[in-house]
TrEMBL record:
Transmembrane segments: none annotated. This is diguanylate cyclase. It comes from Halodesulfovibrio aestuarii. Residues 5-122 form the Response regulatory domain. One of its GO terms (molecular function) is diguanylate cyclase activity. The keyword Nucleotidyltransferase applies. Its EC number is 2.7.7.65. Residues 128-165 form a coiled coil. Residues 193-330 form the GGDEF domain.
């Protein structure tokens, strides 16, 4: 338990001695002052639980000391008991209350009354200290709670990211591709706007894995994915890994000509990576076949038609020799470059 400091103020040493002897008990530390000025000086250095203040003192009297204390932020809540030998007239008592006394004790002091009154204020002080401690603990708990909340939000963000992205390449995963594609389809249907889809397949990827091993195979996938992501510049475009070595790009508000342009840049940028591929019959480097298709949806729930068209274009690009782009409606117009 914290020591309760009690300030006793009296101009007469014998009164200070009396007060001090009455206050002598464990848990109480007495600080003495023999003038108002000295009392105010002590206020700066200590946090008092209680002040026993003589009213009649030469120079600054008890009322003045009390008023000055009440005007100060640090001391205005410290309880004051005036100790006075003055008449017990009401006016005197009121004056004391106006200057901030919370109680009166009259000389000669009755030990029993003195101890019981002082005891009440010491108890109050301990309650106040305990409350302050609880309040501090509560503040600390709040800080911890806020930190936990932040961690939780971060974890949730990470979980969300994990649930929608492909762990290896960081592109959208198949599930999120389906969700986005369905969303864009409905939007295009509502707005009667064109929607394009590009599907990409790495040529002879099984041979690549067989030649260089799966670790290199994964590195190759990451590089190709990065090239796709770098090719697609608009925020609305979505690049996904939809199978082992299969990728797809959703291009909202894009007609076939635009999709063909992106498809060709994709093919070009993958070739520019110049990843050696000894197992490929069509190139020294890793290449991709690309299928593009475009549609202005006329039915609300016919998403498969565009996917099938893009797949068919990809199939044609593969059949025609790979490392090329084909589109569904304009067969192999782009051709191999
Ligand atoms: Mg006096």
């Amino acid at each position: 338990m914290r020591i309760a400091k009690v300030l006793i103020v009296d101009d007469r040493p014998e009164n200070l001695l009396t007060l001090e002897s009455l206050l002598e008990q464990p848990g109480i530390e007495v600080v003495r002052a023999n003038s108002g000025e000295e009392a105010l000086g002590h206020m700066l250095d200590h946090d008092f639980a209680l002040i026993l203040l003589d009213v009649q003192m030469p120079g600054m009297d008890g009322y003045e000391v009390a008023e000055l204390m009440r005007g100060n932020r640090k001391t205005k809540h410290i309880p004051i008991i005036f100790v006075t030998a003055e008449g017990k007239g009401k006016a005197q008592v009121f004056k004391g209350y106006e200057s901030g006394a919370v109680d009166y004790l009259f000389k000669p002091l009755d030990a029993h009354i003195f101890k019981s009154k002082v005891g009440v204020f010491i108890d109050l002080f301990h309650h106040k200290v305990a409350l302050e401690q609880k309040s501090l603990e509560l503040d600390q708990k709040l800080v911890e709670l806020e930190e936990l909340q932040q961690q939780l939000e971060q974890t949730n963000e990470q979980l969300l990211l994990l649930s929608i992205t492909d762990g290896l390449t960081g592109l959208l995963n198949k599930r999120q591709f389906n969700a986005n594609f369905s969303h864009e389809w409905k939007r295009a249907y509502r707005n009667k706007s064109p929607l394009s889809l590009i599907v990409i397949d790495i040529d002879y990827f099984k041979a690549y894995n067989d030649t260089y091993g799966h670790t290199k195979g994964d590195e190759c996938l990451v590089q190709v994915a990065q090239a796709l992501a770098d090719t697609v510049k608009r925020d609305v475009d979505r690049t996904a890994r939809v199978g082992g070595e299969e990728f797809a790009i959703i291009l909202p508000d894009t007609e076939l000509a635009g999709a063909q342009h992106v498809a060709e840049r994709v093919r070009d940028n993958v070739e520019l990576l110049a990843i050696q591929h000894k197992g490929s019959p069509v190139s020294e480097h890793v290449t991709v076949s690309v299928g593009a298709a475009s549609i202005i949806p006329t039915q609300k729930e016919d998403t498969l038609s565009l996917i099938k068209a893009a797949d068919a274009a990809l199939y044609k690009a593969k059949g025609d020799g790979r490392n090329m782009c084909c589109s569904a409606t304009l067969e192999c117009e782009l051709g191999a470059v």
